[in-house]
Amino acid sequence: MTRRVYLDNNATTPVLPEVLEAMRPYFGERFGNASSIHQDGQSARGAVERSRELVARLLGAESSEIVFTSGGTEADNLAIAGMVKPGDHIVTSSVEHHAVLFTCRHLESIGCQVTYLPVNKSGLVDPDDLRRTLRPNTKLISIMAANNETGVLQPVDEIGKIAVEADIYFHTDAVQAAAKIPLDVNRIGCDLLSISGHKFHAPQGVGALYVRKRTQLQPLFYGGRHERSRRAGTENVPGIVGLGEAAKMAIEGFEDNEHKRLTTLRDRLEQAILAQVEQSGVNGAEAPRVPNTTNIYFDHIEGEALVIALDLKGLAVSTGAACSSGSTEVSHVLTAMGLPADRARASIRFSLGKQTTAEDIDFALALIPTTVARLRELSPTYRKVALRL
Ligand code: PLP
């Protein structure tokens, strides 16, 4: 079998063996519904509450402030749609994930006002722009902690201070930041914060929203009084147990300096690519970034073609852009950073994870420069430059 290396951990991560082991009993002998009052139910309830404490610890929150959801998308929808009503003003950024952007667009269609803040060429929001855009009816600021395509970290601590001073609720989508950098909801000063399990080695389909005490949040779903009436629906007990275990492992990872290990591997990958491939560069290089992500442009090629060529050779990476009905949209994130469309289309995201090794980086480096060179040979624009036509 050909070797495969997975450098697409911002898309999803493998469930770690320890996480799977922790979940296993809750598919079998401990199958109870966490709302049942008998022992089978109470055993499930105990597991859910232990996980709540672990997730709270990861975020510096209290366990009563954690609401389990089906993932990051639901957490974002709940955080935003649950806080506003028609006539309210929301401030977000132009580089948010679609879970935030499309929720805001929907809310605009029912009478909310939304400001989409621009970013500079490093992908950063300017806190002064935020200050200037606040209105008497601004109800919510929603600015992500880390960008999924570039890994760029927004100045959320500063944004939190602005929100506190102006007495406006602050939500941050921390789906790509959680477990990668230490997060503390009190340091950030946010009222709402979204995370998603499958981005840090828990299963797909489970996540959480941190909701600061006394925040008046309207639920999206109606039904039972689960999650203190903030999210109706029988809890996904195995998933929640997996989320808790992954949170515990992330906390241990910080103690073991896992983020430093990833930074070293990521920087080696990045520097070697830049040294070996001409007309390439890092998108967002000047901004602070999460340790595991690099987004690199390779001028004169189609990112999609590079993803496919690398995949055939055993390396899984991705373009940041969403692929819909066979045609690749240009990344709204890279476009907002001012990249021309052809450079945005020539950009690839590499995202490392807990299981990435130094050998994986060597494997990637053995493939990338040669594959780019081969694709460029076929590129009419590159030939023009190379032959100085
Ligand atoms: N927000 C960000 C920044 C993301 O990267 C993602 C997933 O890619 C989401 C939200 C959505 O999370 P989920 O896949 O759990 O719905």
Helix tally equals 15
Largest sheet: 7 strands, mixed
Q: What is the average of the pLDDT values?
A: 96
**Helix-and-strand structural type:** alpha/beta
Report the bound ligands by name, code or SMILES: pyridoxal-5'-phosphate
Any idea what the radius of gyration is?
22 Å
Brief descriptors of the model:
389 residues; seven-stranded mixed sheet; three-stranded antiparallel sheet; 14 strands
Tell me what you see in this structure:
The chain has 389 residues and is α/β, with parallel strands linked by helices. 41% of the residues lie in helices and 14% in strands. The protein contains 15 helices and 14 strands. The strands form 4 sheets. Strands 2-8-7-6-5-3-4 form a 7-stranded mixed β-sheet, sandwiched between helices. Helix 1 packs antiparallel against helix 9 and helix 11 crosses helix 14. It is globular and about 75 Å long. The protein starts with a strand and ends with a helix. The model has no long low-confidence stretch (mean pLDDT 96). The structure holds pyridoxal-5'-phosphate (PLP).
